[in-house]
Write a structure and sequence with these properties.
This protein has about 425 residues and is of the alpha/beta class. The protein has 2 domains: about 280 residues, UDP-N-acetylmuramoyl-L-alanine:D-glutamate ligase, CATH 3.40.1190.10; about 130 residues, Mur ligase, C-terminal domain (Protein-Tyrosine Phosphatase, Chain A, Alpha-Beta Complex). About 40% of the residues lie in helices and about 20% in strands. An 8-stranded mixed sheet has the order 4-3-2-5-1-6-7-8, sandwiched between helices. Strands 12-13-17-14-15-16 form a 6-stranded mixed sheet. The longest helix is centred in the middle third of the chain and has 17 residues. The mean pLDDT is about 95.
């Protein structure tokens, strides 16, 4: 198989009739010689902020001199984004080689692995072959039964911000979701949690106590903001003065505080991470579709917020940067998300609302239904566009050179918009 055929092979395998569990992933990896057992990990679960946290941490570890693997999902534009070593995406040739290598093992199994299980196995094999010193590993869904959880005890388990999402799989309260995500905490590791609702922290603390694991809680109150603009932001953290990150979302400060607490935990495990590595790693972090500025005239912000907590964080960033200025929102959502709550957060800040549908037919809420909801809830001007490109061009034309556009609602939507701007260039 060539590169495109290899991707077609992986993407043709659906979740249909597959119960969540670790058995299939474990069987596949055993057939492959258990590559996952030859690596060290920082394992990251949570509802929001996983990718940004993982990207910042991987950048710092790279600057500290460690050969660092980074595994994240989903990809925004190209499949290869999911697997990075020292900030570089895996090559097309490596993807093709690894999928061809895995195929006979997958087909020898009693029950076929799912798409995500194959993708995770690809990552383990890639990072093993490249002899990574450490892998920053993002959970796909949940934690306890996620295919990434086949790994032995990580160096550090991380729990980011938790909110109601994927409730049909993980539970209908944040505490139940926290318990599922705490399934990545194993005896012998350290655990670091984002500072959040006390009942969530208590769930995680109980799991840590049961596994004799030391718990670290991030200290976002130690963040002192100094400056923020569309290029990034500057803040102090304890004795570290004027730290800079090239990520403009206000919420990234709290993610940075979590990362700095992870560094503290790693230092207790004899990892040599200098203050300069922290400073340079944060400065060099790039993470697409998280309050990303893709145009400056007009300002066009792309954000993958796709649940109420994520959208609320985006709104906070917009008001911090633009005050009471009304925004043109280009919105596409999944029908299985709490889109009504998200829309109610957006409406008070909207000058205009353009409804589109992400390119994911089985899950996307159609543009007509979304437009009707907004019309029912407010008097804001509403448009619907069947073609996303028409929606983007309408937003750009209506904004003029001094307006502000924010595209939000789904990472699938973000990927489609990124492709539009890439093609324009």
């Amino acid at each position: 198989m060539d590169y495109e055929e290899s991707l077609d092979y992986i993407h043709s395998i659906a979740w249909t009739d597959c119960e969540p569990g670790l058995e299939r992933e474990s069987e596949l990896l055993e057939l492959m010689g258990n590559p996952h057992k030859e690596l060290k990990y920082i394992h990251i679960a949570g509802t929001n902020g996983k990718g940004s946290t993982a990207a910042m941490l991987a950048s710092i570890l790279t600057k500290a001199g460690y050969k660092t693997g980074l595994y994240t999902s989903p990809h925004i534009v190209k499949f290869n984004e999911r697997f990075k070593i020292n900030g570089e995406d895996i090559s097309d040739e490596k993807v093709t080689e690894l999928i061809n290598y895995m195929k006979p093992f997958a087909e020898a199994m009693k029950g076929h692995p799912t798409e995500f299980e194959l993708i995770s196995a690809l990552g383990f094999e890639y990072f093993k072959r490249e002899k990574c010193d450490i892998v920053v590993l993002e959970v796909g869904l949940g934690g306890r039964l996620d295919s990434t959880n086949v790994i032995p005890s990580p160096v550090v388990s991380v729990i980011t911000a938790i909110d109601l999402d994927h409730t049909q799989f993980l539970g209908d309260t944040v505490e139940k979701i926290a318990k599922e995500k705490s399934g990545i905490i194993k005896n012998g590791c350290k655990c670091v949690i984002y500072n959040q609702k006390p009942s969530i922290i208590e769930v995680v603390r109980d799991v840590c106590d049961q596994n004799n694991v030391e718990l670290f809680i991030s200290e976002d109150d130690e963040i002192i903001p100094k400056d923020i603009n569309l290029k990034g932001q500057v803040f102090d953290y304890k004795d570290l003065k004027s730290l800079k990150i090239g990520l403009s979302g206000v919420y990234q400060r709290k993610n940075a505080a979590l990362v700095l607490k992870i560094v503290e935990a790693l230092r207790t495990c004899s990892y040599n991470i200098s203050d300069d590595a922290i400073r340079q790693g944060l400065l060099d972090t790039k993470w697409i579709s998280r309050f990303e500025v893709v145009s400056e005239s007009p300002v066009f912000i792309l954000d993958g917020g796709h649940n109420p907590q994520g959208v609320n964080a985006t709104i906070e960033s917009l008001t911090t940067l633009f005050g009471n200025k009304k925004i043109i929102f280009l919105v596409g959502v999944m029908a299985d998300k709490d889109f009504e709550s998200m829309i109610s957060m957006v409406i008070p800040h909207a000058r205009e609302f353009i409804a589109v549908a992400p390119d994911c037919e089985s899950r996307a809420l159609n543009a007509d239904a979304l437009a009707r909801l907004v019309t029912k809830e407010s008097k804001v001007e509403v448009h619907r566009c069947v073609e996303l490109s028409d929606g983007i061009e309408m937003a750009l034309n209506h904004a003029g050179k001094d307006g502000v556009i924010c595209a939000i609602g789904s990472l699938y939507l973000s990927g489609d918009i990124k492709k539009y701007f890439y093609n324009k260039k």
